[in-house]
Amino acid sequence: MKSTRNRRRHCRDRVAAIQDPKPAIQNVPCVNFARTTKNITKIKRHFSRRAFMEWLKELRDGLDAEFGTGPRVVTLATVDLTGWPHARMVVCRRIDDDGTVYVVSDARSQKNMQVRARPAAEFCFWLPTRRTQFRVSGDIVPVAAHVPETAIDLESETTRVRREAWEKLSPTARALFAWPMPGEARVDDDAAFVKSNDATSAPDNFEVLLTAPRAVERLDLNTHPHRRRRWMLETEWVGVDLNP
Ligand SMILES: Cc1cc2nc3c(=O)[nH]c(=O)nc-3n(C[C@H](O)[C@H](O)[C@H](O)COP(=O)(O)O)c2cc1C
Questions:
Q1: Ligand 1 in contact with 72 (CB < 6 A)?
Q2: CA atoms of 222 and 164, how far apart (whole Å)
Q3: For residue range 44-99, what is the model confidence (pLDDT) as tens digits?
Q4: b/e map 168-184, b = 16+ CB within 10 Å
Q5: What is the CA(1)–ligand 1 centre distance, in A?
Q6: Which atom of ligand 1 is nearest to the CA of 91?
Q7: What global pTM score does this model have?
Q8: Residue of 88, 125, 208 with the most ligand 1 atoms within 8 Å of its CB, for mutation
Q9: Given this structure, which CATH class describes domain 12-242?
Q10: 3-state DSSP percent of the chain in helix, strand and coil, to 5
Q11: Is the minimum distance from the CB of 111 to ligand 1 under 6 angstroms?
Q12: Shortest CA distance to 64 belongs to which of 122, 129, 6, 109?
């Protein structure tokens, strides 16, 4: 439990952080940090009431059966400002008890810029062992390096989320965040692409993309006819069987 004095200091620093947001990287469209912090809290509160949803168990069990302790590879689709779709593989780092999906990504990458402008996204998991597809959609909230230095010791939620995700990465995976600007013309010097990175703290371009699912759909190919079920978050989560 924080002391009253600590709590007051926490509130004061939080307000200062909101009033004086510092973009992690110049020349990258800036996240609305105040909104981000608020959204993470909202996501947590919102989903904690529905911790044992039917779809969550099915999805997690399916991922365990498919990947075990290996990387949970999934397609992530986003849209750009013109409405053009972009799909790519990412690693699903974690799915919390409240359903929040975690991905790590470079703040300089296209996907991060896209979700800042248009947060709508869909993950598509294929679990061949179970012959089952899961589509999970919701808004992405990028967790950026935004906590001012004076507030770092407060271990805010954003700091914690980034720190824990960084600590779980291998030195090889950390190295990618030290590479030259993703998506730009190839730098003609392989030495710029370091193989390993032992940095213990995350660089400013390291971001965690959090998604609070709003709709989940499962398609099971094991039966005849196939079984398709959709869950949607209205005021409560509701599930409905659909024609495949
Ligand atoms: C198996 C696999 C896993 C990947 N995992 C990630 C990941 O976790 N995060 C990520 O940003 N990119 C990951 N990538 C790279 C992305 O697919 C993509 O090439 C990169 O993020 C740039 O995409 P963007 O320009 O749309 O942002 C992975 C690629 C593959 C093939």
A1: no
A2: 38
A3: 544 444 434 799 999 999 999 999 999 999 999 999 999 999 999 999 999 998 88
A4: ebeeeebbbbeeeebee
A5: 39
A6: 8
A7: 0.81
A8: 88
A9: mainly beta
A10: 35, 30, 35
A11: yes
A12: 129
